[in-house]
């Protein structure tokens, strides 16, 4: 089938005049690489990943962690000193809700001095590496949208004191975006509007780029999001606990503050550990309580996971569910004007790291203190915002 027929078959006839124009080589090449099966999923935006039967999961709670802290910490520190842990920073997202235009890690959350998010994260990592006496490889996933700016920013800031030889970058893949009618959108330059394909592809992208090859002793990956400015990275207590329990995966969780809190919930799905999104659990189920009065679906995942390398290698071939996410997508309209929409205008296609938990088979929910470890920066104001994160940083003694 030639390209024109493919476009017709997939409802993209609006692009035919464009590929017939002179100088359409880039667009033609991009269209030839489109995964039409994924793009066709826009028709079922509500038919997410077909959730199974969910049930509450038991986890490691703070009192138990406190009781065994020394033992877990010693085990985790030994693993770090043996070079068995790498940290993976997910920094490929576009942070559209924050809307700063630059990669989120470059955001300055300071008030009287610059306090960059990347700087905060590396400072937290350095606290551990100083204490343990060994560096942890830091693998940074970027996307086409964030790669250049992230690399030069970190270079200009001397990697915030972290040794460059322990840092590797790799770039994740992109996916095309469509409007609410499933039509592929165009970017400013007349090529396809492409966006990072979600944080679920981190392992495949890391392997493809060979970013892990220089650290062959690594047996564990601590994968974390860029936007939690209280994120504790390479936490030896977490690592020690997950290793001691013989789990292939662990997730840092906070106890949900209220049933409707918008965090993914770690629970059992058809008997296996799984993180389900807040919109995939019914309000009634989210509000269920046990005999002690605690929420049954208590554990909110904070995007800080441990995965054992052998588990990752085993699940690498799994086809991850594709989430169809409504976003504001800048696009070139039919008149050739580049529009930055005020409201959501289309879908992006993303795979999510939380779906890897289900494939892993075992996962230890590891409770952390919300006020000490969870300050996400998603929005400018309101919930999970620059304002709330600043207040939490100050509570933790960080001078802003
Ligand atoms: P979010 O789900 O908050 O998405 O990412 P986002 O794109 O950064 O922000 P919004 O939704 O547009 O406002 C959670 C984490 O996953 C990373 C982000 O950088 C963040 O650390 N991420 C997200 C990627 O690395 N790649 C992606 O394609 C998406």
What is this entry, summarized?
It contains 14 helices and 17 strands. The protein is α/β, with parallel strands linked by helices. It has a single domain, classed as Spore Coat Polysaccharide Biosynthesis Protein SpsA, Chain A (Alpha-Beta Complex), CATH 3.90.550.10.
Q: Could you characterize what this model shows?
A:
It contains 14 helices and 17 strands. The N and C termini lie far apart (59 Å). Helix 5 crosses helix 9 (236-244). It is an alpha/beta fold and 400 residues long. The model has no long low-confidence stretch (mean pLDDT 94). The longest helix has 20 residues, at 62-81. It is 30% helix and 19% strand. It has one domain (34-395): Spore Coat Polysaccharide Biosynthesis Protein SpsA, Chain A (Alpha-Beta Complex). Helix 6 (117-132) links the parallel strand 2 and strand 3. Residues 90-98, 104, 141, 143, 172, 196-199, 225-227, 303, 350, 378 line the site of uridine 5'-triphosphate. Uridine 5'-triphosphate (UTP) is lined by residues 90-98, 104, 141, 143, 172, 196-199, 225-227, 303, 350, 378.
* Bound ions, cofactors and other small molecules, one mention each: uridine 5'-triphosphate
Number of helical elements: 14
Gyration radius from CA atoms, angstroms: 22 Å
Helix percentage range:
25-40%
**Which stretches are low in confidence, meaning pLDDT under 50 for 5 or more residues running?**
none
What does the average pLDDT come to? 94
Strand order of the largest sheet: 4-3-2-8-12-9-17
Kindly state the number of beta strands.
Answer: 17
Q: Name the CATH homologous superfamily.
A: Spore Coat Polysaccharide Biosynthesis Protein SpsA, Chain A
**Strand-residue fraction?**
15-25%
């Amino acid at each position: 089938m030639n390209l024109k027929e493919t476009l017709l078959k997939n409802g993209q006839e609006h692009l035919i005049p464009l590929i017939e124009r002179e100088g359409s080589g880039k667009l033609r090449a991009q269209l030839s690489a489109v995964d039409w099966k994924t793009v066709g999923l826009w028709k079922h935006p509500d038919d997410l990943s077909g959730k199974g039967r969910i049930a509450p999961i038991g986890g490691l709670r703070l009192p138990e962690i406190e009781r065994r802290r020394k033992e877990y910490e010693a085990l985790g520190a030994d693993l770090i000193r043996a070079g068995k842990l790498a940290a993976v920073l997910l920094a490929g997202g576009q942070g559209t809700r924050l809307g700063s235009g630059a990669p989120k890690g470059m955001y300055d959350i300071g008030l009287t001095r610059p306090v960059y998010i990347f700087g905060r994260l590396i400072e937290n990592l350095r606290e551990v590496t100083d204490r343990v006496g060994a560096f942890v490889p830091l693998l940074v996933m970027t996307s086409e949208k964030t790669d250049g700016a992230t690399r030069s920013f970190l270079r200009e800031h001397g990697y915030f004191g972290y040794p460059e030889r322990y840092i590797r970058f790799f770039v994740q893949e992109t996916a095309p975006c469509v409007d609410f009618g499933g039509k592929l959108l165009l970017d400013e330059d007349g090529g396809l509007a492409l966006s990072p394909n979600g944080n679920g592809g981190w392992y495949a992208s890391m392997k493809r780029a060979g970013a892990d090859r220089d650290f062959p002793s690594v047996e564990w990956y601590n994968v974390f999001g860029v936007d939690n400015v209280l994120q504790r990275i390479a936490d030896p207590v977490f690592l020690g606990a997950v290793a001691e329990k013989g789990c292939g995966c662990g997730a840092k969780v906070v106890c949900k503050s209220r049933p409707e809190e918008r965090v993914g919930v770690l629970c059992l799905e058809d008997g296996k550990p799984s993180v389900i999104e807040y919109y995939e659990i019914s309000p009634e189920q989210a509000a269920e309580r046990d005999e002690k009065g605690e929420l049954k679906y208590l554990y909110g995942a904070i995007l800080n996971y441990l995965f054992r390398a052998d588990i990752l290698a085993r699940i690498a071939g799994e086809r991850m569910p594709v989430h169809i996410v409504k976003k504001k997508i800048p696009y070139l309209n039919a008149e050739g004007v580049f529009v930055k929409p005020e409201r959501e205008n289309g879908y992006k296609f993303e795979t999510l790291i939380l779906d890897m938990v289900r494939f892993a088979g075992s996962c230890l929910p590891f409770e952390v203190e919300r006020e000490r470890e969870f300050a996400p920066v998603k929005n400018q104001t309101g919930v999970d915002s620059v304002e709330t994160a600043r207040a939490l940083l100050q509570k933790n003694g960080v001078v802003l």
